[in-house]
Write a structure and sequence with these properties.
Layout (H helix, E strand, L loop, with lengths): L6 H23 L8 H23 L9 H15 L6 H34 L8 H12 L2 H19 L10 E2 L7 H24 L3 H27 L2 E3 L3 E6 L3 E6 L3 E6 L10 E3 L11 E12 L5 E9 L4 H11 L1
Parallel strand pairs: 6-8
Antiparallel strand pairs: 1-2, 2-3, 3-4, 5-7, 7-8
Helix pairs in contact: 1-2, 1-3, 2-3, 4-5, 5-6, 6-8, 7-8
Length: 336
């Protein structure tokens, strides 16, 4: 049975492995360590790759922290060993890199993909109406990686999915509302992609006259940015706003989201009034003034809007565009 993790327990979970890691690094840097000592190098490698992960496992085995979080700890210890140990002492680190690390990577990738497809199947069969694919991927990554890193990895994975696999029309179910059909959001992204393409060609030609390698690096980054914007545009049509009996799930593709309990909603106003002088009202869309709004949702308390890669914005009210604002307002009022 899992139990709540106290502050003192958290200190032990991360503090004990960290103390051992610092001791090993200090030992390698000291005059006591000899690079030609194979026995000492073997012992230090064993401590890095087995002892520290085992100590971490013993601390988390009865907690809510997933066992899969051992993998990042192991990879950190491997990276420290590769950086700290001199080349002549890295024989066992090299063996781990050649024979063990690929197995871990393949196993981790298989676990993530299996979990994602399992959750995707549940979503498609509507066994879990409140969960979309992006949320499912974040949940899977959160089981394996630290919170901030899990958001970054999940964002990249869903980007690849939208660019490569997400084709065809996304069905809109009962309680879902679109926000992209009657505004210029997707046209704006198309324009941004066009600008990136034109500037990429111009920059590549200019930089290539002086630094050929740098020109290709800049071009690669620009192309990747273009794919990101394409993924953003496709996600807008595939993550509608959801209104349930208990909560309002506001979405703007994968660029913004917030779940609001219905009791927190004070008022829903159908208005296009200028909000530039009202700092407490935030637009759901990260495009800001480039995109219009026709709804303002006033709240009883401050909430946080989650933006790209986990960034947060605080708001007392949210302005957004909805294709059928009147129907949305009537439905929300009926549920309150």
């Amino acid at each position: 049975m899992t139990r709540t993790i106290s502050f003192r327990k958290r200190i032990a979970i991360f503090g004990i492995p960290l103390v051992v890691l610092i001791f090993l690094v200090t030992l390698v840097q000291s005059s006591f360590f000899r690079p030609d000592s194979q026995i000492l190098s073997f012992c230090i490698t064993i401590d890095l790759l087995l002892t520290i992960p085992f100590l971490y496992y013993m601390q988390i085995r009865n907690t809510t922290i997933p066992i899969t979080s051992i993998v990042p700890i192991l990879l950190i210890c491997f990276a420290v060993g590769s950086f700290v140990l001199p080349p002549q002492s890295q024989h066992y680190i090299t063996l781990f890199k050649i024979f063990i690390l690929p197995i871990i990577e393949i196993g981790l990738a298989f676990y993530v993909v299996r979990r994602i497809f399992k959750l995707r199947k549940q979503i498609l069969t509507r066994k879990n109406d409140s969960l979309d694919l992006y949320t499912a991927i974040k949940n899977v990554c959160r089981d394996i990686l630290p919170p901030r890193l899990s958001i970054l990895v999940a964002s990249e994975l869903i980007m690849v999915y939208y660019v490569v696999f997400a084709w065809g029309k996304h069905p809109i179910n009962e309680g879902e509302y679109t926000y992209h059909k009657r505004n210029a959001s997707q046209a704006l992204f198309a324009l941004l992609i066009l600008i990136i393409m034109v500037e990429t060609v111009a920059l590549h030609i200019f930089i290539a006259n002086y630094f050929s390698t740098l020109a290709w690096i800049v071009t690669g980054l620009s192309v990747y940015t273009g794919f990101q914007f394409y993924g953003f545009a496709k996600s807008i049509a595939r993550r509608p706003i959801q209104l349930t009996r208990t909560s309002l799930k506001l979405r703007y593709g994968i660029l913004a989201e917030v779940d609001i309990p219905l009791q927190v909603v004070r008022e829903v106003a159908l208005t296009r009034k200028d909000i530039s002088s009202m700092p407490n009202i935030k637009k759901l869309s990260p495009l800001g003034d480039l995109e219009s709004h026709n709804v303002i949702i006033y709240l009883n308390e401050e909430i946080k809007i989650t933006g790209p890669y986990g960034m947060k914005r605080k708001a007392d009210a949210i302005a957004l565009h909805m294709d059928d604002a009147k129907a949305f307002r009537e439905r929300l009022i009926s549920l309150q």
